[in-house]
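Lab notebook, bench 4. Still working through the backlog of constructs that have no structural model yet. Next entry is a single chain of 161 residues. Request: give me the structure tokens for it.
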Amino acid sequence: MKRALIDDFWSHVRIGGEDECWPWQAGCDKKGYGVLRTKAPELKLIKAHRHAYELAHGQINEELDVLHTCDNPPCCNARHLYQGTNDDNVRDMHERGRNKNPPHDIYPHPRSKLKPEQVKEIFASTEPSSLLAKRYGVHRSAIKKIRRRETWEEITCAMPS
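Model written out:
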């Protein structure tokens, strides 16, 4: 890559100390990630942190994302960037509390009306679904899904039928 293009890229980054975040100072997308437009002949938008990673570490594996250890989307400090899978990115997002809707495998879900102990009681009960639904304040279909092991599989599948 031409030195002028590299210098132009870094002119849009507020470079700080080696352990500090280096935020992108030009345009950002809705999620706060720095973006830049490539030059002709192939005009396209690319993420600034990905470009910073490539400048510092070389080509990015096309199957991987470039993730931030600092959890700061506009950061372009290559020391804060690493390659990881989409699953790694999602796991980081949940571990750092950036998602209000955890994946279905995290129990109890913050919006769930039922607690794991209640699910065990429902699964073990022989009472009609309609009575259990009233008792626990959920729809009858929620009770039936628990009994058919369509929801709360981690709990119901660990219990004898």
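Notes after review: The chain has a mean pLDDT of 85. The radius of gyration is 24 Å. Flag for follow-up if needed.
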